C-alpha cells in the first residue's frame, strides 16, 4: 500500500509522508470523533450509557431511543417544521436575491458600491441584535407561533450570502449572451427568466444549499417566536429536550435526536461538498 | 436614444433590487434603529410594561451594572481565545488539505462536516462528552492517568468557559480552514520553486511567501469569526445557560435574559445598542486595516 499518489511532488521524502499521514489521521479523529460518539450513544442501552468506566462499543445494540423519539415525542413533526421553514425560506431567498444580484452585477446603478458594502456589513451582525425589534414586529402583526414568523427572517438572513454568491457568478458569465438576447428583442425580465436562469441553475443549487443549512440550524428566532410544541423546529426541540429534566437527562434520546436532526445536513454535505466550498469562498473572499 | 435605454436599464435595476433591499431594511435596519429608540425609555415590570421616557438612564445604569461588565469580559475572553485557536488550527488544517494524498476529496468532505451541523445539537453532544459522571472526556483522561478523579467540566467556573471554547473551536474551525485553503490554492507554485532554488527551507518559504500572501484571507476569516463569536448564543445557552454562577454568561445571553426573563425591554435595548456600537467600531477598525494592507501591497509590488 502506497500512501502518496503518483502525481505527488517528487521532493516528498518518507518522514514528511509519515508526518502527513499522522496529520490526516488526527484531522479525521478531530472531525469525526464527537459525531461517532453520539451515534454510538444513541445505539446503547441505558445500562451501557450510564456505565462507569465507559463502555465504548455497545454490548447490545438497541433502537429504543429512536423509537422513543418518534413514538413518545412529536419528532417527526419537528423535522417537518424545520424542513418546511427551511425550504420555503430558501426558495424565497433565491427568488428575491437572484434578481438583486443580477442588478448589482450588471446594471451599473448609482450607489451600487454603497448597497454592496451595506450587504456585506450586514452579514457581520449577530442575530441577538435583531431579535428584540423582530419580536415586537411579530407581536404587532400577530405572527407568534406561525411559520411566517420564521420564514421572513430566515429569507432575509440568507439574502446577503445569496446576493454575494450570485453576483460573483453573474460577473463570470459572458456579456455577449445578454447583448444578443437584447438584440433579439428580449426585455431584461424575459432575458433573465428564459436565457440566464437555465445557465444559473448550478449556482442556484450552491446558494440554495447554503441557505437551507443556515435556516435549518437557526436557533434564537425559533426559540423566541415559537412557543407552541407542534410548531417547534429541530434545534429548539432538541435543546429543550436536554433541559426538561434536571436530574434525569435522557441522554439516549438526546443522542438519537442529534443523529436524526443532523442527518439531512450530513447527506447534503456528502453530496454537495464541492459546491458548498465554492459557495462559501465566493461569498466570503470575493466580497 | 442611448440615454433612454440607459434610463430604462436603471429602472429595471431598481425594480430587481427593491424587494431584497426592503426585506433587508425590515429585518436588519429596523430592529437596530428601534433598539436605539427603545433604549431611551424605561419599559419593564416597574412601569407595568408601559414605555416611560428616561433619557440616558439605561446607559448610566449600565455603567454601574457589574453583571454587564462581567459579561463583556466573558465575551471578550471567549471571542479572543476561540478566534485565535480557530485561526491557528484552521491554518494547520488548510495546510494539510493542500497537500497531495490519496482520497483527499473524502477527507475534505469529512473536515467540512462540523461546520454544517446545527450548533444547538452540537452543543448537546459536547455537553454529553464533558458530562461529569458518564462523560467520555473524563474517561479518556482517567485511563491515561492524567487526572485521578472525574472533573465537573461544565460545573466548575474555572473550566466551563474552556469547554464552551472547545465546542466552538470544533464547530467553526472548518469554516476558516475552507477560506484559507482557497487562499493557499491561489498562490502560484512557481513562487515556491523559485524560492527553493534560492536555497530557502520550507519553513522560510512558509514564513516569507505563504503567510504574507494569505494575510488578507486570514484577516477576512478572522473578522467574520470575530463578529459571530462576539454574538455567540446557541452554544452557551444550551451547554451552560451562562453558568455556573455567570462564569460563561456572554453579553448575548445577558441581553436575552434581560428581555425574555426580566421583561426589561428598555434596558435590553440599551444593551443591544452598546453591543452594536462595540461591534461596529471593531469592524470599522478591521476594515480600515484591511484596506490599508491592500494599499500598501499595491504600492509595494509594482508589476
Radius of gyration of chain B: 24 Å
> Main interface pair?
A-B, 100 and 94 residues
**Number of DSSP strand runs of chain B:** 2
CATH fold name of the largest domain in chain A? MetI-like fold
Total number of domains of chain A: 2
Q: Would you give the CATH topology of chain B?
A: MetI-like fold
Supply the helix-strand structural class of chain B: mainly alpha
What is the CATH superfamily of chain B? MetI-like
| Sequence stretches where pLDDT stays below 50 over 5 or more residues of chain A | 1-8
What does this structure look like?
The complex is a heterodimer of chains A (287) and B (303). Chain A is an all-alpha fold. Helices cover 73% and strands 0% of the residues of chain A. Chain A contains twelve helices and no strands. Chain A has helices at 14-42, 46-49, 64-71, 75-106, 112-122, 131-140, 148-172, 176-183, 188-217, 220-225, 234-244, 251-285. Chain A is globular and about 75 Å long. The model of chain A is unreliable at 1-8 (pLDDT under 50). A two-stranded antiparallel ribbon of chain B has the order 1-2. With 303 residues, chain B is mainly alpha-helical. The interface between A and B is large, with 100 and 94 residues.
Amino acid at each position: 500500500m502506497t500512501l502518496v499518489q503518483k502525481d505527488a511532488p517528487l521532493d516528498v521524502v518518507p518522514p514528511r509522508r509519515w508526518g502527513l499521514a499522522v496529520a490526516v489521521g488526527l484531522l479525521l479523529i478531530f472531525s469525526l470523533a464527537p459525531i461517532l460518539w453520539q451515534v454510538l450513544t444513541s445505539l446503547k442501552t441505558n445500562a451501557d450509557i450510564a456505565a462507569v468506566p465507559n463502555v465504548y462499543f455497545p454490548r447490545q445494540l438497541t433502537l429504543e431511543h429512536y423509537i422513543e423519539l418518534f413514538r413518545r415525542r412529536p419528532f417527526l413533526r419537528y423535522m417537518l417544521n424545520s424542513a418546511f421553514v427551511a425550504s420555503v425560506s430558501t426558495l424565497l431567498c433565491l427568488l428575491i436575491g437572484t434578481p438583486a444580484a443580477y442588478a448589482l452585477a450588471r446594471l451599473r446603478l448609482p450607489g451600487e458600491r454603497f448597497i454592496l458594502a451595506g450587504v456585506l456589513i450586514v452579514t457581520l451582525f449577530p442575530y441577538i441584535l435583531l431579535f428584540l425589534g423582530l419580536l415586537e414586529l411579530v407581536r404587532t402583526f400577530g405572527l407568534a407561533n406561525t411559520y411566517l414568523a420564521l420564514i421572513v427572517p430566515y429569507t432575509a438572513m440568507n439574502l446577503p450570502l445569496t446576493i454575494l454568491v450570485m453576483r460573483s457568478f453573474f460577473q463570470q458569465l459572458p456579456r455577449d449572451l445578454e447583448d444578443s438576447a437584447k438584440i433579439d428583442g428580449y426585455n431584461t425580465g424575459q432575458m433573465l427568466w428564459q436565457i440566464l436562469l437555465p445557465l444559473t441553475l448550478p449556482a442556484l443549487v450552491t446558494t440554495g444549499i447554503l441557505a437551507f443549512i443556515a435556516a435549518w440550524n437557526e436557533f434564537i428566532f425559533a426559540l423566541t417566536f415559537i412557543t407552541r410544541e407542534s410548531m417547534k423546529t429541530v434545534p429548539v426541540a432538541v435543546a429543550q429536550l436536554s433541559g426538561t429534566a434536571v436530574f434525569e437527562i435522557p441522554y439516549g434520546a438526546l443522542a438519537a435526536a442529534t443523529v436524526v436532526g443532523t442527518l439531512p445536513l450530513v447527506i447534503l454535505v456528502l453530496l454537495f461538498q464541492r459546491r458548498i466550498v465554492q459557495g462559501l469562498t465566493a461569498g466570503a473572499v470575493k466580497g | 436614444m442611448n440615454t433612454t435605454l440607459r434610463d430604462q436599464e436603471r429602472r429595471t435595476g431598481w425594480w430587481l433590487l427593491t424587494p431584497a433591499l426592503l426585506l433587508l431594511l425590515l429585518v436588519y435596519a429596523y430592529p437596530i434603529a428601534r433598539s436605539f429608540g427603545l433604549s431611551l425609555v424605561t419599559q419593564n415590570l416597574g412601569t407595568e410594561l408601559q414605555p416611560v421616557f428616561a433619557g440616558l438612564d439605561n446607559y448610566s445604569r449600565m455603567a454601574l451594572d457589574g453583571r454587564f461588565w462581567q459579561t463583556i469580559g466573558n465575551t471578550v475572553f471567549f471571542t479572543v481565545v476561540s478566534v485565535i485557536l480557530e485561526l491557528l488550527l484552521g491554518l494547520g488544517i488548510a495546510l494539510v488539505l493542500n497537500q497531495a494524498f490519496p482520497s483527499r476529496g473524502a477527507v475534505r468532505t469529512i473536515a467540512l462536516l462540523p461546520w454544517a451541523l446545527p450548533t444547538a445539537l452540537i452543543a448537546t453532544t459536547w455537553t454529553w462528552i464533558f458530562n461529569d459522571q458518564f462523560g467520555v472526556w473524563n474517561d479518556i483522561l482517567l485511563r491515561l492517568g492524567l487526572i485521578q478523579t472525574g472533573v465537573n467540566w461544565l460545573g466548575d467556573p474555572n473550566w466551563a468557559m474552556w469547554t464552551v471554547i472547545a465546542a466552538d473551536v470544533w464547530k467553526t474551525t472548518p469554516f476558516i480552514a475552507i477560506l484559507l485553503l482557497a487562499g493557499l490554492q491561489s498562490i502560484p507554485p512557481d513562487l515556491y520553486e523559485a524560492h527553493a532554488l534560492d536555497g530557502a527551507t520550507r519553513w522560510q518559504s512558509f514564513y516569507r511567501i505563504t503567510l504574507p500572501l494569505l494575510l488578507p484571507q486570514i484577516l477576512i476569516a478572522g473578522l467574520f469569526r470575530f463578529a459571530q463569536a462576539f454574538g455567540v448564543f446557541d452554544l452557551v445557552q444550551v451547554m451552560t445557560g451562562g453558568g455556573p454562577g455567570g462564569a460563561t454568561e456572554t453579553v448575548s445571553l445577558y441581553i436575552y435574559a434581560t428581555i425574555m426573563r426580566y421583561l426589561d425591554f428598555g434596558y435590553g435595548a440599551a444593551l443591544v445598542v452598546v453591543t452594536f456600537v462595540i461591534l461596529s467600531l471593531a469592524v470599522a477598525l478591521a476594515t480600515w486595516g484591511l484596506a490599508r494592507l491592500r494599499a500598501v501591497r499595491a504600492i509595494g509590488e509594482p508589476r
